[in-house]
Amino acid sequence: MRFKPAAILLALLLVFGAAWAEDIEEETYDPGDENEYGEGGDEGDDGETDGPVTDNPHQTGAFSGGLYLGGMTWPRQDDDGDPYGNDAGGFLVGLRGQYYFIDNLAAFANLDFAFGDYTSMIRLVLGAQYNIPLSNEFTAFIGAGLAFDIASWDAFPYDDREPEDPEDRNSAFYDEGSRTNVGFNATGGVEFFVTPDISLRPAVGLDLSGSLHMVYGLGVSYYL
């Protein structure tokens, strides 16, 4: 399958991140307001602040935007045998945005562009995302929403067909075409803050829009 090395690399990133989170000192951040002792800590007997002194970047009213690079897979034919482009997937570049209407819960919008050898696809996802703080710098997140996929593809040479492709030279599979689908999306990943305002976000998403699509890669976000 195409993109298997990239999928394996992303899986390793997720496993490494989970192992790293277990090794760091157990700290959680408080999404509440600042208190008289600092940002999210209590004053100890020596007058110093105990616990983490940090802001939760996922507070009400926070906004983040960023870039996402990775891959996207889709079937060359759907379950009914209808064509779905002439590639099994392609390179993906996209934009990400989140707005937190309450602490740790955001509305998000993703706009992606995927490119295969013959096929191009535009993907818009709208939904909600929930963050699970694991430490000062490390967060897991899950999201769900609706995905809108618009695909178009060029004619595919009959001589380049694969064993599972139609044998009929006149099949619509070998013609140029396009299609649009809407379906459910689920997304999950982790977020690691390299600075208080900038984070790295490896993530995987699944779309059930017409057929199963997978999106995987690494994003970077900036919090305003």
What are the secondary-structure elements, in order, as H or E? HEEEEEEEEEE
Helix content: under 10%
The amount of beta strand, in percent, is over 45%
Low-confidence sequence ranges: 1-54
Oligomer: single chain
- E-strand count: 10
Main sheet summary: 8 strands, antiparallel, barrel
The CA-CA distance between the termini, in Å, is 39 Å
Please state the average pLDDT score. 80
Radius of gyration: 21 Å
Overall, the morphology is elongated
Strand order of the largest sheet: 3-4-5-6-7-8-9-10
Total helical segments: 1
Structural class: mainly beta
Primary descriptors:
eight-stranded antiparallel β-barrel; single chain; elongated; 224 residues; 9% helix
Offer a concise description of the structure.
The protein is built from one helix and ten strands. It has an eight-stranded antiparallel barrel with strand order 3-4-5-6-7-8-9-10. Strands 1-2 form a two-stranded antiparallel sheet.
